């Protein structure tokens, strides 16, 4: 998250791959959390630019969001969210058809056990 927006929403194992594709590489001496915090900051972003043959220009949060939509994980996420919900794929126990999660007898037994 940066500036109130979600920049990346996917597996933790692919986050460095995403930022490398955007042109920023996490150096070995920096922790991933610190890198992620600083790479979206205007003040600290330039130090992580690794395309030496291309001139650096500030990448805004909105640009990161657009790049995530083009990233393979962002496309998979968009594809899954654009499909309508299929109730047949849902497990019966995951939906509650009662306003109470337990029957009254089960609640009474739980209270009595205390």
Chart the SSEs and their pairings.
Elements: H1 15-22, H2 32-39, H3 61-70, H4 72-82, H5 104-113
Descriptive notes:
Keywords: Transport. By secondary structure, this protein is an all-alpha fold. The protein is 41% helix and 0% strand. The protein is built from 5 helices and no strands. It has helices at residues 15-22, 32-39, 61-70, 72-82, 104-113. The longest helix is centred in the C-terminal third of the chain and has 11 residues, at 72-82. The chain is elongated and about 70 Å long. The mean pLDDT is 91.
Highlighted features:
about 110 residues; mainly alpha; about 0% strand; elongated
Task: Write a concise synopsis of the structure shown.
With 114 residues, this protein is mostly helical.
- SSE run: HHHHH
Number of structurally distinct domains: 1
Number of strands: 0
Number of helices: 5
Helix content: 40-55%
Quaternary form: single chain
Radius of gyration: 22 Å
- What spatial form do the alpha-carbon principal axes imply? elongated
For the report, how would you describe the main beta sheet? none
Mean pLDDT: 91
- Uncertain spans, ≥5 residues at pLDDT below 50? none
Query: What is the terminal-to-terminal distance?
Result: 43 Å
User: What class do helices, strands and sheet pairing give?
Assistant: mainly alpha
Strand content is under 5%
Keywords: Transport
């Amino acid at each position: 998250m940066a500036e109130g927006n979600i920049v990346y929403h996917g597996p933790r194992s692919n986050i460095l791959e995403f930022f490398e594709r955007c042109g920023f590489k996490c150096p070995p001496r920096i922790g991933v959390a610190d890198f992620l915090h600083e790479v979206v900051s205007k003040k600290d972003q330039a130090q992580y630019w690794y395309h030496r043959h291309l001139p650096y220009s500030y990448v805004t949060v909105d640009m990161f969001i657009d790049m995530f939509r083009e990233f393979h994980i962002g496309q998979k996420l968009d594809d899954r969210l654009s499909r309508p919900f299929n109730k047949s794929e849902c497990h019966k126990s995951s939906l509650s058809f009662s306003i109470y999660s337990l029957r009254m007898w089960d609640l009474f037994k739980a209270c009595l056990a205390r």
